[in-house]
Structures are given as structure tokens and as C-alpha cells.
Amino acid sequence: MIYFPCSGCHYEVSAPEDDVGKYVLCPNCFTRLRVPPPVTNEKIEAAEAAAQIYELRSGKEIKKHKNTIPVYCQLCHTLMYAAPERIGSFQVCPDCGTKTQVRPILGKEEPQP
To answer: ∠ CA 86-91-94 to the nearest 5 degrees?
Structure first.
């Protein structure tokens, strides 16, 4: 099964892996959604490598992003980073334009105001 958030109401939608690329309706708000491909370790590693290559080409020093949260685009799996204060808000993917919700890292506490 593939799990992904609805772009309309943020409900967590599930679909069989055979439905990748097909359209389904959100069971909560009935928004028509395309089922994204599953996130694999290879895609995550490729996204991290691409981010490092981009940083090298742009002349930026590669850093560990200690105070940021990794955010993977729900459609194309581009690796992005967000500040902890942005948890719950949306970040637009620079590659495909898809809005992805910034979620806390599992096992870590949310920042205290």
C-alpha cells in the first residue's frame, strides 16, 4: 500500500501499489488525486545525492542541516528542507510545484514556543 496526503483536506489516503499513476478519490473530501509512486530508499538516496551535487555546483558548502527538517515532495520526491517553525505549513516543490506539508520527524518533539 502507498500512503499519501490529500491535497484538499490533508487526510492520509491509501492506495494499492498497482494504482500508481491512476486517479483515486479522497474518502474524506472526494478530491480527485493521482497516486504517487512509492518512496524507496534508492529515491531518498538519489534525492540526497542530488541535493549535495546542487550545493557543490552552486558553490555552497555542504552542511548537515542540523536545525532543519527534511521534506520529500509527495509527487516527485525532491528533497527539500524546512525550519521546525514551519511544521504544519506547506512547502512548494521547486521541481514540480506540488505543495507538500511539513511534518515533524517521528521520534522527535516539536519545538516549544
So the answer is: 145
